[in-house]
Amino acid sequence: KQHFISNQALINKKVLVTAAGTIEAIDPVRYIGNRSSGKMGYAIAKQAALLGASVVLVSGPSYLPKPEGVTLIKIENALEMREMVLKEYKDADIIIKAAAVADYRPRTVEENKIKKNEERLILQLEKNPDILQELGQLKEKNQILVGFAAETQDLIKYAKDKIQRKNLDMIVANDVSLPGAGFNIDTNIAKIIYKDGKIENLDKMSKDELACLILDKIINKYYNVS
Ligand code: CTP
Ligand code: CA
């Protein structure tokens, strides 16, 4: 069934979105990164702005242009993303964490380019803070916190576990091993899972369509628009 959303449904609301992958420096010329393009987060930011929200998009490196009407804050690594998110979340009504944050960063960043002197090179990695989990602890009752989960197995089990562990209202779960889902493509096959355990299976759709649908669900569920 289709819900009607007025195109100003998010007026006077602040929406904070994170997008793209973080990159973690190894030395001045190298980094650890991931395959996230930023398409999902940028699509959400664009749609939220079209619905009248004041939108702040905190993004890792991405070739995508700044969506119109959105404040774009570019960062590189997870620690910088955390810092900007913690600066911006307090007055946000809706926080959507679509970013693929690197779970680990090199323990030290070499000052000079590493030379290929060793036959085997061991990189020591340190766990990054979980930004979403921190937000889950900090959030106020009226703030809506939405996470993403990309899995290659046991999608629902892991996604439900993340809802609990990170105190989320909703998670958008993707099986990235399916054709037509995942990184750097224009479509997704997602499941939306709510705090109460309810699951909605969505068809394969474009990331723009999925962005509309996610915002539509939030508006209808939490702002009682019908
Ligand atoms: N996330 C985050 N900070 C991190 C890691 C993840 O804010 N350091 C957020 C992501 O933006 C996403 C959600 O947590 O919204 C789930 O990310 P995911 O990588 O699926 O889960 P992890 O908790 O990192 O667990 P794992 O990678 O082991 O599955
Ligand atoms: Ca992770």
TrEMBL record:
Cofactor-binding details, from the entry: Binds 1 FMN per subunit.
Gene Ontology cellular component list: phosphopantothenoylcysteine decarboxylase complex
Highest rank taxon of the organism: Bacteria
UniProt name for this protein: Coenzyme A biosynthesis bifunctional protein CoaBC
Gene Ontology terms for molecular function: FMN binding; metal ion binding; phosphopantothenate--cysteine ligase activity; phosphopantothenoylcysteine decarboxylase activity
Needed co-factor(s): FMN; Mg(2+)
BP term (GO), one: pantothenate catabolic process
Annotated residues for binding of CTP: D103, K113, P129, D130, I131, L132, F148, K162, K166
Full protein stretch here: 176 to 401 of 401
Pathway connected to this protein: Cofactor biosynthesis; coenzyme A biosynthesis; CoA from (R)-pantothenate: step 2/5; Cofactor biosynthesis; coenzyme A biosynthesis; CoA from (R)-pantothenate: step 3/5
